[in-house]
Specification:
By secondary structure, the chain is mostly helical. The chain is 63% helix and 0% strand. It contains 6 helices and no strands. It is elongated.
């Protein structure tokens, strides 16, 4: 009798076990994220946001969570929803850094992608 049949479940290698644990952590992060943004403007766009903030597998889960939250905050707090303001002021309010959304920075490139996504998403609604 093969060992896997004895335990009544397939045996997994270390890499497979690690991958499975990472996937479970990712799903917990996603559930918490969804709960945290329930009742906000971004709630209807969470799945779409998740497709924008792709998890490429090599990305740390904390960074993935940070980018999801940044995208949600951008969506919920875009200046056009209430008043106009300079991008540096908006960046400072959301991140504490007025240069966070500068072109050429990781967060700046993400902001631009998010902004484009928001306009496309809202046009379809």
């Amino acid at each position: 009798m093969p060992v896997g049949e004895f335990f009544e479940e397939p045996l997994l290698g270390r890499q497979e076990q690690k991958s499975l644990r990472e996937q479970e952590k990712k799903e917990r992060i996603w559930e918490i994220f969804q709960r945290d943004y329930e009742g906000t403007p971004v709630e209807t766009a969470l799945e779409s946001l998740r497709s924008i903030v792709k998890d490429n597998g090599s990305q740390e889960l904390a960074k993935w969570d940070k980018m999801l939250r940044l995208g949600a905050e951008i969506y919920n707090n875009l200046p056009y929803r209430s008043t106009k303001m300079y991008l540096a002021v908006f960046a400072a309010m959301r991140t504490g850094n007025p240069h966070a959304f500068d072109i050429g920075t990781a967060d700046g490139n993400f902001y631009i992608r998010s902004y484009r996504w928001i306009w496309k998403y809202e046009e379809l609604q």
